[in-house]
From TrEMBL, chain A:
<dbReference type="InterPro" id="IPR008274">
    <property type="entry name" value="AldOxase/xan_DH_MoCoBD1"/>
</dbReference>
<dbReference type="Pfam" id="PF02738">
    <property type="entry name" value="MoCoBD_1"/>
</dbReference>
<feature type="domain" description="Aldehyde oxidase/xanthine dehydrogenase first molybdopterin binding">
    <location>
        <begin position="243"/>
        <end position="477"/>
    </location>
</feature>
<dbReference type="Pfam" id="PF20256">
    <property type="entry name" value="MoCoBD_2"/>
</dbReference>
<dbReference type="InterPro" id="IPR036856">
    <property type="entry name" value="Ald_Oxase/Xan_DH_a/b_sf"/>
</dbReference>
<dbReference type="InterPro" id="IPR037165">
    <property type="entry name" value="AldOxase/xan_DH_Mopterin-bd_sf"/>
</dbReference>
<protein>
    <submittedName>
        <fullName>Molybdopterin-dependent oxidoreductase</fullName>
    </submittedName>
</protein>
<dbReference type="InterPro" id="IPR006311">
    <property type="entry name" value="TAT_signal"/>
</dbReference>
<dbReference type="InterPro" id="IPR046867">
    <property type="entry name" value="AldOxase/xan_DH_MoCoBD2"/>
</dbReference>
Automatic annotation (TrEMBL), chain B:
<dbReference type="InterPro" id="IPR052914">
    <property type="entry name" value="Aldehyde_Oxdr_Iron-Sulfur"/>
</dbReference>
<feature type="domain" description="2Fe-2S ferredoxin-type">
    <location>
        <begin position="6"/>
        <end position="89"/>
    </location>
</feature>
<dbReference type="InterPro" id="IPR001041">
    <property type="entry name" value="2Fe-2S_ferredoxin-type"/>
</dbReference>
<dbReference type="InterPro" id="IPR036010">
    <property type="entry name" value="2Fe-2S_ferredoxin-like_sf"/>
</dbReference>
<dbReference type="InterPro" id="IPR002888">
    <property type="entry name" value="2Fe-2S-bd"/>
</dbReference>
<dbReference type="Pfam" id="PF00111">
    <property type="entry name" value="Fer2"/>
</dbReference>
<dbReference type="InterPro" id="IPR012675">
    <property type="entry name" value="Beta-grasp_dom_sf"/>
</dbReference>
<dbReference type="InterPro" id="IPR036884">
    <property type="entry name" value="2Fe-2S-bd_dom_sf"/>
</dbReference>
<dbReference type="Pfam" id="PF01799">
    <property type="entry name" value="Fer2_2"/>
</dbReference>
Length: 900, 176
């Protein structure tokens, strides 16, 4: 008899129909999935922690689920793999099809026309086998009309659209030849010939731009009005608010505190330079990729688009992406262009696999950065220190590719009022199209720039008004009846008062003036700074997938389309099944996007039982604790109802419903059945014997509240769950949709909120400043964080510690100038870019505020923990030096100049 | 056979390897990664700043082990030397005490810099075994051996917690 539970290697794919009508099959597989499907022993290319249990206690991690592989030095990252590692998965043997190596020939200036390039300096045995440039791409009818593929190569006779734009990609015979050739080419001034200088065009603006205007006195805001009403009237209301600001200041009712801020380009400096493998299999026209990306689904769709022209020289029928753990991300691998270049060059290698590794020079030159940002901000306070109004304008240098820049600018504007009740607010945001370094999603996504502005202005106001800075903030805190700059409501307890109280009582704050005196006697300037942030987690609306499968040996596998960049998502999600089924995952398949894409959910056909309001988003670190965790947690519920409860019923020979089952130490406890606890393996055996579902894949949507629906599981009443799609099956190929009725999506007005979930964080921080050298030393940092229910406290505190170090670099040392002397010229590395080292790190403490009343979920904190720190540093420096810096980084040189 | 054709011979994790003279200037990290498939040694900056590529080297199997940056070191420099990589630390997939401490303390996040921290700390422990220091000087020693290793994710705190725990038994106070 055919056993549905027999091992099955089917890999789920989805189809992309391109503009030409051509259909391309897309498959995304996580590396663990691939290894498990091919029965690779865990210790061979170990990615699972079977040999050492990472979480023996349900709901608690003893170490990271990905920890063992990483600490043993196993192959985990894209850079670890060569094509010879993949022969068992069908890639060609190196002795038959030698692995080629790719190198990008990049422009190092934006100010001159490229007249030609030549490789004459390479001896014949080091010449590339193939050169792919704009001409070859055009002749091959590669489609460059996609969102991110325009401007792939510089055309001769034109200037580069941005620093590092390639002139050509070179394919070398093998690694040995590549290494020798690269040494000759990389810093040669004779490879690319530049002709006459070009005058740089005036910057254009990437669409969309944002204008938020709120005036509570006339009930006007983005949320309070319809889209048409808002668009028709916001300029008039804005003018009225500006006029009122001017008159109130003129009359002496309000005081204005206004400054222009400038923050620098910052490199994410994730440790693994972008790397990957590609192979165009000419026998079946499949393009195979191995990458560490934060956006596997988006990337693979863009790749498919490249080959969608009917006249394309390469008839790509399928794209198969293997998703690896990225060696750090921070947003820099989200919509990165690395994937596209690797994909576009692979078919030119005549059936050979190609390897492409950025080095650090290239990563600095072309990797996605945090934007240079100009902020003009004014806050208006009455004599009692109440904030009455704010105006803020954020301009981000997006660089030569649009990427996520407008949306980063948007979040800066949305964050402009931070955690404060401000009745009248104007916030504008735009991202500029320039030939500079490319900006995109980075940890904080515009938030750090916004909090820097308001928190330093508030500090300045407090001191001038002679109000304690924490007291002034307390007098202006957002409450549950208030709104953000869009007019969107506060739908959760922000815990702002407990955060302020936790830090206000610290000796670091209470004794700051005495300590300042003590340091003065030692010849050092000393200051303590405070800052509060109200960083959102999630976007304006989030869709999310989660999957769980039960294996015959009782192990649990979690599946998720998201990627763990090191933020701990894999570990948190591995704990999620314990909530409903009492077991932690034994393994997790991160980046397993294809599994979920194959469900073919729709956001357009509202009549379909596969309709969901929001598609799945990116692998942002701030989405894992709440949104992604919810999806995995609720993937266990259908299994509890339709597999575990029937299995227990069978074992006990009486009907047991899911709500009678609880868990103790991994064993099922059945209410009303004293002394008859059921071991997990016994339940699993019954599930498999009875051919009950062992796999569940679900989708959820949240915009301020979760979409919910009734689901009819066999032999049960309908169950209302906060998820909008469920599929159940006995294997991934038998997954089928569970009937859904009464779907209730969040109200449409919620889509106009902008953001809906926050994890406020404040930092109290001391610095010393050496007047002679200008050196700033951060001595101590105490942060207080609203984190909700922590999944793994060690990971939360680790995020805070990393966030503080990164924020210190942002405030004090890291800088990528957007000039010919900056990283765009291809000569930058860590010798020119100063990161914090362990000796720079202050004594620190993280205070986690107890979860709010009835709060049972975690908040996304990976970005929040960094957000208040730069402003706290500037406020501390202001106390120490008496000088308010408004430009980052505050270098020793700037300090010395200010003190001279 | 002239010297130009002579092979470079050394040991990697106690296994003898030979490299052709033509490859003499290949960076050790590339040789380990590409030729031996020992990808636990990581390339990050390539100019010796970040220390992610740290390995241990010695002139003999039981000789004094030093920290060597595999990105800056050509294989020719390894002739007749012994090289130890992260893959040498564990036995049959079982982490050693330092690796276990990194796990227990949640020391790393993305993990790309971890092998560099492991190898740098292993050299530190070797030194402490030979020349123990007082507990009050331990942090200074840690900074000397591991302080230049860069980690972007963690802020170093949990690495240092684990390293202190492992190094503490080798301080003068504990030995006596």
């Amino acid at each position: 008899m055919f056993n549905l539970h027999e091992f099955n290697i089917h890999r789920r794919s989805f189809i992309k129909t391109c503009g030409s009508g051509a259909a391309i099959t897309l498959t995304i597989t996580s590396l663990p999935s691939l290894l498990m499907a091919n029965k690779v022993q865990a210790n061979e290319l170990a990615l699972d922690s079977h040999s050492l249990n990472w979480a023996p206690t349900p709901g608690k991690a003893d170490f990271r689920i990905d920890g063992l592989s990483k600490v043993l030095g196993n192959k985990v990252f894209a850079r670890d793999f060569r094509s010879k590692d993949l022969t068992r998965y069908g890639w060609p043997d190196n002795t038959v099809k030698e692995e080629r190596v790719v190198y990008a020939l990049r422009t190092n200036t934006i100010e001159s026309v490229i007249s030609s390039y030549n490789l004459d300096m390479l001896p014949s045995h080091l010449q590339p086998l193939v050169v792919v440039d704009a001409t070859k791409i055009a002749k091959s009818h590669i489609d460059l009309s996609g969102d991110v593929s325009d401007g792939l190569f510089v055309r001769l006779g034109e200037s580069a659209l941005y620093y590092g734009q390639p002139v050509a990609m070179l394919i070398f015979k093998n690694a040995v030849i590549f290494r020798k050739a690269k040494k000759i080419l990389q810093f040669s001034k004779n490879v690319i010939q530049y002709a006459n200088k070009v005058s740089l065009q005036e910057s254009k603006t990437y669409e969309p731009t944002y204008d938020y205007v709120k005036d509570e006195s006339v009930n006007f805001s983005y949320v309070a009005k319809s889209a048409d009403e808002y668009n028709d009237n916001y300029r008039n209301v804005q003018n009225d608010v500006f006029n009122e600001m001017a008159s109130k200041v003129a009359e002496g009712d309000w005081k204005i505190y206004s400054r222009a801020f400038e923050t620098q380009v910052m490199d994410p400096m994730f440790m693994e330079p972008e790397s990957g493998l590609a192979w165009f299999n000419q026998s079946n026209n499949s393009l195979n990729l191995l990458l560490g990306t934060q956006s596997p689904t988006g990337d693979i769709k863009e790749v498919a688009k490249l080959f969608s022209d009917k006249k394309c020289a390469f008839k790509v029928k399928a794209v198969d992406l293997i998703s690896c753990y990225p060696g750090g991300g921070f947003g820099g691998r989200y919509k990165s262009y690395f994937t596209l270049y690797l994909a576009v060059v692979a078919p030119f290698a005549d059936g050979h696999p190609v390897l492409w590794h950025h080095d650090r020079f290239e990563q600095f030159q072309i990797g996605i950065k945090r934007h240079q940002t100009w902020v003009e901000e004014a806050i208006y306070l009455n004599k009692l220190g109440k904030i009455k109004a704010l105006s803020a304008s954020f301009t981000l240098d997006g660089g030569g590719r649009k990427n996520s820049s407008p949306y980063v600018a948007q979040l800066a504007a949305l964050s402009s009022c931070s955690a404060y009740k401000i009745p009248k607010a104007i916030a504008k945001a735009q991202a500029l199209d320039t030939p500079h370094l490319i900006g995109g999603a980075q940890r904080g996504f515009g938030g750090p720039q916004a909090f820097l502005a308001i928190e330093t202005l508030l500090d300045e106001a407090a001191i001038e008004l002679k109000i304690d800075p924490i007291v002034l903030r307390r007098n202006n805190l957002l409450s549950k009846t208030d709104t953000i700059v869009t007019g969107g409501p506060i739908v959760q307890d922000l815990q702002l008062e407990p955060i302020l109280s936790a830090l206000e009582k610290q000796p670091l704050w209470q004794n700051r003036f005495n300590n300042q005196q003590a340091y003065k006697e030692k010849g050092l300037l000393y200051g303590v700074g405070f800052a509060l942030s109200n960083q959102a987690y999630g976007t304006s609306g989030d869709g999310m997938f989660g999957g769980i499968s039960i294996e015959i040996d009782g192990s649990i596998t979690v599946r998720t389309p998201y990627v763990d960049m090191g933020n701990g998502a894999a570990t948190a999600l591995g704990l999620a099944p314990s909530h409903f089924i009492g077991q932690n995952a034994s393994s997790i398949k991160m980046g397993d996007a294809g599994y979920f894409d194959a469900l073919n959910l729709t956001q357009t056909d509202t009549s379909s039982d596969k309709y969901v309001l929001k598609g799945s988003g990116s692998s942002s670190a701030c989405l894992s604790a709440f949104q992604q965790y919810h999806a995995v947690q609720y993937a266990a519920m259908p299994l509890l109802v339709s597999a575990i409860a029937p299995a227990i019923s069978s074992i006990l020979n009486e009907t047991i419903t899911y709500d009678k089952i609880s868990w103790k130490d991994g064993t099922a406890v059945v209410a009303g059945v004293a002394g008859r606890n059921i071991p997990w393996q016994k339940i699993v055996n019954a599930i498999f014997t009875l051919n009950l579902p062992t796999q569940a894949a679900i989708h959820a949507t949240t915009i301020g509240e979760f979409a919910h629906a009734d689901y009819k599981f066999s032999a049960t009443k309908s169950l209302n769950l906060p998820i909008d799609y469920i599929a159940l099956g006995t294997s991934e190929v038998t997954l089928s949709t569970v009937p859904r009725t009464n779907l209730v999506n969040p109200p449409s007005i919620n889509s106009r909120f902008g953001r809906y979930a926050y994890s406020p964080c404040a930092s109290l921080l001391s610095v010393t400043v050496d007047e002679k050298t200008g050196h700033v030393s951060v001595k101590e940092c105490i942060s207080a964080l609203s984190a909700g229910v922590q999944h793994c406290p060690e990971i939360v505190s680790g995020q805070s510690q990393g966030g503080i170090a990164m924020a210190m670099g942002y405030a004090l040392s890291e800088d990528c100038p957007s000039t010919n002397n900056g990283p765009g010229n291809g000569t930058w590395n860590l010798n020119k870019y100063r990161l914090m080292k362990s000796a720079d790190i202050p004594k620190q403490e993280l205070i986690i505020i107890e979860p709010a009343k009835n709060e049972k979920t975690a908040r996304g904190i990976a970005e929040s923990v960094m957000c208040p720190v730069p402003a706290a540093i500037l406020n501390a420096i202001a106390m120490a030096t008496g000088h308010r810096f408004t430009k980052l980084p505050v270098t020793q040189k700037l300090i010395k100049e200010a003190l001279s | 056979m002239n010297d130009l054709n002579k092979k470079i011979t050394f040991h990697v994790n106690d296994i003898k390897v030979e490299v052709s003279a033509d490859e003499a200037d290949t960076a050790l990290v590339d040789y380990l990664n590409d030729d031996l498939s020992l990808t636990g040694t990581k390339f990050c900056c390539g100019i010796g700043e970040c220390k992610a590529c740290s390995v241990m080297t010695s002139t003999s199997k039981h000789g004094v082990k030093n920290k060597t940056l595999a990105c800056l070191t050509p294989v020719s420099f390894m002739n007749e030397m012994h090289v130890y990589t992260v893959e040498s630390l564990s036995e049959n997939g079982k982490p050693n005490d330092l690796q276990a401490a990194f796990l227990k303390h949640f020391s790393f996040q993305c993990g790309y810099c971890t092998s560099g921290f492991l190898m740098s700390t292993t050299v530190l422990i070797e030194r402490l075994k030979q020349n123990p220091v007082s507990q009050s000087n331990l942090d200074k020693m840690i900074d000397q051996y591991v302080g230049d290793n860069i980690c972007r994710c963690t802020g170093y705190v949990r690495y240092l917690d684990a390293i202190r725990e492992i190094a503490k038994p080798y301080t003068l106070e504990h030995i006596s």
